[in-house]
Amino acid sequence: MIQRIQTIYLLLAVVATPVLLFFFPLAAYYSDTATLKLYLSHIQNLVPSLPLPLTLNPFLQYAGIIISIIAGIICIYTISSFKNRIKQVRLVRITLFLIILVIAWQFFITDLIRKNLSTIPDYEIGIYMPIISLIFLLLAQRAILKDERKIRAADRLR
Known about the structure:
The chain has helices at about 5-20, 60-80, 85-115, 130-155; strands spanning about 25-30, 35-40, 45, 120-125. By secondary structure, the protein is an alpha+beta fold. Strands 3-2-1-4 form a 4-stranded antiparallel β-sheet, covered by helices on one side. A hairpin with a 4-residue loop joins strand 1 (about 25-30) and strand 2. Helix 1 (about 5-20) runs antiparallel to helix 2, helix 1 runs antiparallel to helix 4 (about 130-155) and helix 3 runs antiparallel to helix 4. The chain is elongated.
């Protein structure tokens, strides 16, 4: 059934990381030479009269976007494969791994920019979105396993 609680958890996980992560900044950097906001897809210079003091490697810049989109697609596919709960658990675990990679990528990029600008980042709401997604994925996995236990218990009674 698609009306199960894990469907809601998976939808919230899709909204938290791949969708909202594109709209909210990850970190802000305030230094003497630049004022920047780091988004998942780009770095925004808040003082347009000054040149951008750093450029990121395109592979590093787009790695977070690609991993985040793949995690969202797998989450949506997980919702659609509601008839096979074991497959759902495997897909949720793969998505958990991808979200952990997104979190590691975020902190790697913010630390890289921190070292280049010699300033401390002010973490924004976007940095917490994958953690929220991680929580929803863990709740979804728990609910799927609970459903699987109920089905097996019902099969034993037959």
